Amino acid sequence: MGNKDKSPATAAGELRQQAEKKLRATAEDLQASRAGDRSQRLSHELEVHQIELEMQNLALRQAQQELELSLAKYAELFDFAPVGYFAFDASGVIREVNLAGARLLGINRSEAAATPFASYIADPGERARFTRHLADVLHEPGVQRCEIRLTGTDGKVVHWQLQSVAVGAPGKKGFHVFCSVVDGTLARELKAQLQKAHDNLECVVGERTEELTRANAQLTREIDERKRAEESLKNALAEIKGLKDRLLAENIYLRQEAAGEYNFGEIVGQSKAITHVFTQVKQVAPMDATVLLLGETGTGKGVVARAIHSNSSRKDRPMITVNCTALPGNLIESELFGREKGAFTGANAQQIGRFELAHRGTIFLDEIGEMPLELQCKLLRVIQDGEFERLGSPRTVKVDVRIIAASNKNLEEEVRNHRFREDLFYRLNVFPITIPPLRQRTEDIPRLVEHFIAKFNKKNGKKIQSVSRETLKALQQYQWPGNVRELESVVERAVITTQGPSLQIVDRFDLDRPAMSTTEPQTKALAELEYDHILGVLLKTGWRIEGKNGAAGLLGLNPSTLRARMRKCGIQRK
After folding, report:
1. CA distance 7 to 3
2. Which of 480, 458, 454 is nearest to 467 (CA)?
């Protein structure tokens, strides 16, 4: 800290100590030799005071130098600032001005001293504005702002922005008005340019808005026109739909008329025997009664089952078909009732049974006579109570299922031979329908042939249009052990091989063979022939069913199908 920051007493004390220190070396000798001399002591005091004064002068000169340096720095800041600074008295006379302020006035700095600031404002109105601004500064506290417009020697208009504040009290010593002046011309020009750009933008936006408004109006008109066109189109479509519905209704009526005369759904025919089946289907279809379909293989039991379901209240739900002959004995239960994961070896996931899939629908149990006895009891419970358990699960599942069963066996005889449960037979035999074999309704063969020709024409892209009388007569004289299914296969082969518009039957069957008067001996002969043939192949293979040299491979059958045929024929290894 410098001497200028210390009090006078402290500075004087320090100076005295320094003077005594310098004289200490010589003073000790003098004090010793002149201890009693008063004049020498006074001389010593004078010398000390002289040294003190010299040191004070040195300190003052150092302080003066520092003050001059600081003043020079502040003067530079004041003079070279980018803003013009003025100091006025109460009447607006310039007392101080920096270089920037002098340049704003266009004069030398020395010329501005003691001159009124208003003398540099040529316009009377702007001069009056400065006078009001000065009065506001004298009477209002805080910074006061004002803008004065000047016209330079070059004729260019300049805008000065003044910010003034009063320092001290008016009439007191040291009072002055401190004012900063900034040339706001550039800022004002930029503001004017910005305003002009804004006005141009507003104009462009207005023009664009008008264009968009016109385009929107045009689009609105186009939308209205399109709506009118759509309305007209809707009316035309409604009229077309009305005509279409009328044609559809007429078509449905004609089809119903044709169906009533010749067929019922997929069941084709007009014979007395098949008409009786139509009547029975119409009677039982709307009910939820269990139906038992009886008839030989190929008579169309599946077709009748679909007709019953299609005309029932459950037609919107699926009809699930289960062929009891095609399923292996060890899988029938899991297929019908489902299983849980891990119920048996190989059960890697939960499986939903066919009865659950048929919930609120219909389940068709084809060849019910082939179902093992151990499962018949569980099926009986489903028919009676509508509930069962999945394999591997203790939880009871309840279902609402209509049951249609079918068999080509004489179930009454199966009951007598203890191969079918009597109580299950009575539960299934609520509404039995016996479907006649084709040989008992030969008058339906022409209609069936026509139906199959249309079906296979569409499938194979053929255009067969007629059948000769000789061909129809031959087809009606044939025994048809395979019934309608066999007839369908014969017609399909004929459609494939026929070249021309008339159906040509070229088949391995002897179509000229007359029909037999009775069917029972032939049926027994075929059953015995099947029994002997299967038994002979099994003996040849050593009762091996599956594999490369198994009986199923030699017979061209699936192993599960062969097992079902063995059960049907009663073939067992002894």
Report:
1. 8
2. 454
